[in-house]
Amino acid sequence: MAGTYNAGDGRSSSTEEMSDQQDHSENTLSEWRSSQQVENGIPSTSPAYLDTDDDDDDDYGPRPSELYGNFTWRIDHFSQINRSELRSNSFDVGGYKWYILIYPQGCDVCNHLSLFLCVANHDKLLPGWNHFAQFTIAVINRDPKKSKYSDTLHRFRKKEHDWGWKKFMELSKLHDGFIVEDVLTIKAQVQVIREKTDRPFRSLDGQYRRELIRVYLSNVEKICRRFNDERRSKLSRLIEDKLGWSSFCGFWLAMDPSVRRHMTREKTETILKNLVKQFFIQKEITSTLVIDSLYSGLKALEYQSRNKKGIPKLTETDAQSTPMVHIDQDMFVLADDVILLLERAALDTLPHQPLPTQDDEGSQYHTKDGKSSNKFDKDSIERDDRWLTELGWKTLELFALAHIFSRIEVAYQEAMALKRQEELILEEASERAGIELKAKRSAADKKRRGKNM
């Protein structure tokens, strides 16, 4: 559908520009948006931060900033458009060509503006192609606070080469500051994702990441908190079972120290693969930030494990408390006895995000002159980055502890099953012995009765 137009067809009279992918000035920090500006449509197909990934084994490929770009499409004489579809010129991001497709009267819906991001020349790409990208499309209002944004994460492929929103916004709202002098302005931000499956990764351009953090940080916190609460609840139930917990403690303390040492460590590769598998959900818009949080937490844990001094305090809750795990070369290792760590984890709740000051809360929007207080912006950036790192750190520690404990728990269950099997064997042997003894006594009684006759 999106590729049926020839060059020049289906386009309005418009001006378009591709912004410099590397030019992020201080003033752009004031262009942040709030979560209230995110349109709640469902995406579908149509009919402080350093932009580096400094892992030792990751010295190849483009950086996230090199896979990011934004594009502005200004559609002139919008009220005079009588076509059912319009598409922008193509633009390059991440080595791929894209364009924006709109339906001024809606796509399979009424009274809505439909908006899609499309892969250009998709029918000419090699078989099996796919482009994985996170993107934001916005319809700009004369008042930046009222601009409408929608974000999504999608793997573009042959059967889904266009993706977006049929109900991006109601047509009746376009005249409330969105059409200015008969010009509708649409902006797209596109981040091609270079994903990993073996460890947490950072995939977002710095400026785009900061914008998404401002909007979705609370969602990331909910995901991390839900995981932490579920694991803590499970451990609490285990410990509250006095008989079962006593049995486990007896099993653990009776184990040979060398075996205990072996069981309290696991390869980082194994744990990190499982971590990514659990938390990186390709259809969830927050997945890139959750994985980014875990990446930051991993880096902080690695830093602390190297016993370097002067590691910065993450939040006022003091995330420098004694760690539950540390990293020793290519292994996650429990930092204390497993019984003590499990009891601690059952009580160790995830702290809440530090509240911003009143100045911080107001720094996310444009001021009248298009400027903002950089001091407050930088303070909020640092506060949010510290909180994102702490969320990742705490979640990673608990995930590693839970993973290592799961292996110990399997060993415990196997030992209990073996013990029960041995008890059953002894019970059966005792029962057989009783039956045999009873049979012998019965035979002896018959023999005595036979002699007396």
Features:
Apoptosis, Tumor Necrosis Factor Receptor Associated Protein 2, Chain A, 8 helices, 453 residues, elongated, 6-stranded antiparallel beta sheet, 2 domains, alpha+beta, disordered N terminus
Helix-strand blueprint:
Layout: E1 14-18, E2 43-44, E3 68-75, E4 86-87, E5 91-93, E6 96-103, E7 112-119, E8 130-139, E9 148-157, E10 162-170, E11 179-180, E12 183-192, H1 206-240, H2 242-253, H3 257-263, E13 265-267, H4 268-279, H5 287-305, E14 325-328, E15 331-334, H6 338-347, H7 358-361, H8 374-452
Antiparallel strand pairs: 1-3, 2-10, 3-12, 4-6, 5-6, 6-7, 7-10, 8-9, 8-12, 11-12, 13-15, 14-15
Helix pairs in contact: 1-5, 1-6, 1-8, 5-8
Biased composition (Basic and acidic residues): 366-377
Organism: Sorghum bicolor (Sorghum)
Region (Disordered): 1-63, 351-377
Account of the protein in words:
- This protein is an alpha+beta fold.
- It folds into 2 domains: 64-193, Apoptosis, Tumor Necrosis Factor Receptor Associated Protein 2, Chain A, CATH 2.60.210.10; 196-308 and 322-351 and 376-446, no CATH class.
- It has 8 helices and 15 strands.
- The chain has helices spanning 206-240, 242-253, 257-263, 268-279, 287-305, 338-347, 358-361, 374-452, and strands at residues 14-18, 43-44, 68-75, 86-87, 91-93, 96-103, 112-119, 130-139, 148-157, 162-170, 179-180, 183-192, 265-267, 325-328, 331-334.
- The strands form 3 sheets. Strands 1, 3, 8, 9, 11 and 12 form a 6-stranded antiparallel β-sheet that branches. Strands 2, 4, 5, 6, 7 and 10 form a 6-stranded antiparallel β-sheet that branches.
- Strand 14 (325-328) and strand 15 (331-334) form a beta hairpin.
- Helix 1 crosses helix 5 (287-305).
- The longest helix is centred in the C-terminal third of the chain and has 79 residues, at 374-452.
- It is elongated.
- It starts with 13 loop residues before the first strand and ends with a helix.
- 33% of the residues are buried.
- Residues 1-63, 351-377 are annotated as: Disordered.
- Residues 366-377 have a biased composition (Basic and acidic residues).
- Residues 68-190 form the MATH domain.
- It holds the Pfam family MATH_2.
- InterPro entries: MATH/TRAF_dom, TRAF-like, TRAF1A/B.
